[in-house]
Amino acid sequence: MASHLRRDDGRLRLERTGPFMPPVTFPGVGPIVITAKVREELQHSELTGAAFVPVVKHRIVKLDWRSWNLDAAAPLEYPEEGEPENYILERPHDPAVAIALGDLWEVQLGNHAETVRIEGHSALRADTWDATDLFHPGGTRIPAASEQAADWFRLRYPEWVYLDELKIAQG
Question: Reading across the β-sheet that carries 2-3, which strands appear in turn?
């Protein structure tokens, strides 16, 4: 989870389980959080549009859910009241687990295209896109990727990144 409340310096406050950390996560609508390894790969790629800001590990709790039988009909344990966020909110922050996650970065994206509504869905206005690879289309908080960027993520992180085709509006 990513708190919608950012620190005074604008950094994202992350709340999650550990010690496992996927290389790429989408904790909420809009933010993208990556590990230091992914940041380094992106910095050395030819992809454009990404800036990186350190994430504040606000509440990192110890919960090794990857050791559970993931094929079981039910999880090993349920949080009180059955709310998934309570796996995190009902446990204390664990500084050792936070350190074990390593450095984490928010990928900050700019607005490099505008959108229009077509049949109830947002569509990218092709005439406003400046060919930046990673961006937020205007009027949305959902990240968007060029075909080159989509291929880059599909090749390296297919288990962690799902890409849906963006509708394009001409003119």
Answer: 2-3, 13-18, 56-62
CA distance 138 to 75: 39
Summarize pLDDT for 104-155 with one digit per residue, the tens. 999 999 999 888 888 877 888 889 999 999 998 887 788 999 999 999 999 9
30: left (phi over 0), alpha (psi -120 to 50) or beta: left
Cβ distance 77 to 84 under 8 Å? no
Conformation bin of residue 151: beta by default, left when phi > 0, alpha when psi is -120 to 50? alpha
**Other C-beta atoms within 10 Å of 162: how many?**
9
Q: How far apart are CA 162 and CA 48, in angstroms?
A: 20
Do 102 and 14 touch, CB atoms closer than 8 A?
Answer: no
Task: Provide the b/e sequence for 37-76 (b: ≥16 CB within 10 Å).
Answer: ebbebbeeeebebbebeebbbbbbbebeeeeeeeeeeeee
CA contacts within 13 A on the Cβ side of 7: 11
Element at 121 (helix H, strand E): strand 121-125
Residue type, 45: S
| pTM (2 d.p.) | 0.87
